[in-house]
């Protein structure tokens, strides 16, 4: 038996030893543990807000440059790390696909990257046990079993789906009859978030719309009017070079602006200016200085009839969307409310830095308090019951992990809450793996919920959400049922945990590993992709 195995057995034996503590004291400490868990969840939410304030705009810009599976994978990882939430990244990806801003094929590889990126949170949590080398080893192994499983699944399914897009084709057959939501059908169901979100928003409220404007490229402008297809075809005929190319209209132009052969409805200009015959009319989101007067392009804003279409006069200004065009959407602040804005008037970067530092301190403090109190409460009978529940059957653990994640709507929260229990030896690595796999499935609910409220292109949005679900299910089918194959992710996590015991550099290994895997490699790949696409 190795020294590590002896230490693990001793740690578990300590929990199973009967406790002689006063029952009243245990009851009080139990209430305090639940309070600390609530603070822990609140802290994770606040930490996520801090990361979003620091990296929200940058992460939203990343989605523009993905043009192959590898770059899409790396962008998925980096974007998720920057906002500390695969749920947020997945929801953005689903909404981009639903708005026809991103192809399903590329989105699938981004989802794979988001699956890897989400495990950075519990890896950070594991570092809170640096004071005890055995706790750090167990905790880091429990945290990285999530990383190893996701990386191994990507290693198999990325090349297969690259060669033949089976996920895209399979989910299309499942989602092809989906309809867009309307009115009251566009409401999402929340579970535990209503009990945490109001408090985190009371500290700092993050404006998700700004990141959406950036990721969907509304920085130039957005028309607030609703135009018919025929109306957009008339506008496109005036301003576009051809039915397949409208790149002349604006420097921010992307091909998805007219993916259907005409400009998308909200891409209508505020004004167009007639030019010489045979030349596309000028496209403007702001009123040109030379346009002291203007003529309505449409005679009727209901039927969208136009007597000037096809015969514009050179130099004449024609009002299209006019004052209904919204500009400067991407310049808005990410921090839109809460104590840090209303009372302290902090900048986005200042608030993000403050929240990140405070939340990391609070996270370590909560971990210390929870572990200390659990050592008193869970000793003896309670520990034996917990061991029986999580040790009863791995497939039951998958269901437990899935249920917890569905309730909190974040796999990061689930695995980050379980990691301290694994670090102190209450949950072993063999039980942690299926709990993590269940969390992976549970987190796909967020993407499915985002797909239910898509008002355009619902089929493609559902495809991406279902791809996320089946990617995780197929990964479990490959790596979990057969014990000898199951050992691969378990041994990989054990190896990473053992690396933390090196007497010279063991304690800094988690930090080095996290930076290399989640920041440096994806960051370099993103930089190369961005440079190549510019």
UniProtKB/TrEMBL annotation:
The domain of life for this entry's organism is: Eukaryota
Q: Where in the cell is it found?
A: Cell membrane
| Ranges in coiled-coil conformation | none
Q: Does the keyword Disulfide bond apply?
A: no
Q: Which InterPro entries match?
A: Na/Pi_transpt
Membrane disposition: Multi-pass membrane protein
* Any matching Pfam family: Na_Pi_cotrans
GO terms in the biological process aspect are: sodium-dependent phosphate transport
Residue intervals passing through the bilayer: 27-51, 72-94, 106-128, 140-164, 351-374, 395-413, 433-454, 461-482, 508-528
The Swiss-Prot or TrEMBL record annotates one GO molecular function as:
sodium:phosphate symporter activity
Keyword tags: Cell membrane, Membrane, Transmembrane, Transmembrane helix
**GO cellular component terms, semicolon-separated:** plasma membrane
Query: NCBIfam families of this UniProt entry?
Result: Na_Pi_symport
| PANTHER family in the record | SODIUM-DEPENDENT PHOSPHATE TRANSPORT PROTEIN 2B, SOLUTE CARRIER FAMILY 34 SODIUM PHOSPHATE , MEMBER 2-RELATED
Similarity comment text for this entry: Belongs to the SLC34A transporter family.
Name used for this protein in its record: Phosphate:Na+ symporter
Q: Which organism is it from?
A: Micromonas commoda (strain RCC299 / NOUM17 / CCMP2709) (Picoplanktonic green alga)
């Amino acid at each position: 038996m190795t020294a590590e195995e002896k230490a693990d057995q001793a740690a578990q034996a300590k929990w199973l030893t009967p406790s002689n503590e006063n029952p009243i004291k245990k009851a009080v400490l139990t209430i305090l543990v639940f309070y600390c868990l609530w603070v822990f969840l609140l802290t994770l939410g606040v930490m996520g807000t801090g990361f979003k304030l620091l990296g929200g705009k940058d992460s939203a810009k990343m989605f523009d440059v993905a043009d192959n599976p590898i770059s899409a994978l790396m962008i998925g990882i980096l974007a998720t790390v920057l906002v500390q939430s695969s749920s947020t990244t997945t929801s953005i990806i689903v909404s981009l696909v639903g708005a026809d801003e991103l192809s399903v094929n590329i989105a699938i590889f981004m989802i794979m990257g988001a699956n890897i990126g989400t495990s950075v949170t519990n890896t950070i949590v594991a570092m809170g046990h640096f004071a005890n080398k055995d706790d750090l080893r167990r905790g880091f192994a429990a945290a990285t079993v999530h990383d190893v499983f996701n990386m191994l699944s990507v290693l198999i399914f990325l090349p297969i789906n690259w060669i033949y897009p089976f996920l895209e084709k399979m989910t299309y057959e499942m989602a092809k009859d989906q309809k867009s939501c309307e009115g009251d059908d566009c409401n999402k169901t929340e579970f535990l978030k209503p009990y945490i979100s109001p408090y985190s928003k009371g500290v700092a409220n993050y404006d998700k719309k700004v990141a959406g404007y950036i990721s969907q490229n509304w920085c130039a402008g957005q028309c607030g009017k609703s135009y018919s297809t025929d109306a957009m075809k008339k506008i496109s005929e005036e301003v576009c070079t051809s039915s397949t190319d409208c790149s002349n209209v604006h420097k921010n132009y992307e091909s998805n602006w007219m993916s259907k052969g005409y400009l998308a409805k909200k891409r209508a200009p505020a004004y167009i200016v007639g030019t010489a015959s045979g030349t596309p009319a000028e496209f403007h989101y702001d009123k040109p200085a030379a346009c002291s007067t203007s003529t309505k392009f449409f005679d009727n804003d209901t039927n969208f009839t136009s007597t000037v279409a096809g015969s514009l006069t050179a130099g004449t200004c024609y009002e299209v969307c006019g004052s209904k065009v919204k500009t400067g959407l991407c310049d808005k602040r990410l921090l839109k409310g809460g104590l840090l804005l209303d009372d302290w008037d902090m900048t986005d970067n200042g608030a993000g830095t403050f929240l990140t530092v405070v939340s990391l301190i609070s996270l370590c403090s909560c971990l210390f308090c929870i572990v200390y109190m659990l050592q008193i409460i869970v000793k003896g009978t309670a520990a034996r019951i917990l061991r029986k529940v999580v040790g009863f059957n791995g497939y039951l653990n998958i269901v437990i992990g899935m249920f917890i994640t569905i309730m909190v709507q974040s796999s990061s929260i689930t695995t980050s809450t379980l990691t301290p229990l694994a670090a102190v030896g209450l949950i072993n690595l063999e039980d942690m793996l299926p709990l993590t796999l269940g969390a992976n499935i549970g987190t796909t609910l967020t993407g499915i919920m985002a797909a239910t409220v898509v008002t355009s292109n619902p089929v493609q949005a559902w495809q991406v959400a279902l791809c996320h679900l089946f990617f995780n299910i197929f990964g479990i089918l490959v790596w979990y049922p057969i014990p000898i194959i199951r050992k691969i992710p378990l041994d990989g996590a054990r190896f990473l945990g053992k690396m933390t015991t090196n007497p010279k550099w063991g304690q800094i290994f988690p930090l080095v590993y996290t930076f290399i895997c989640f920041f440096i490699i994806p960051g370099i790949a993103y930089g190369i992709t961005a440079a190549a696409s510019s």
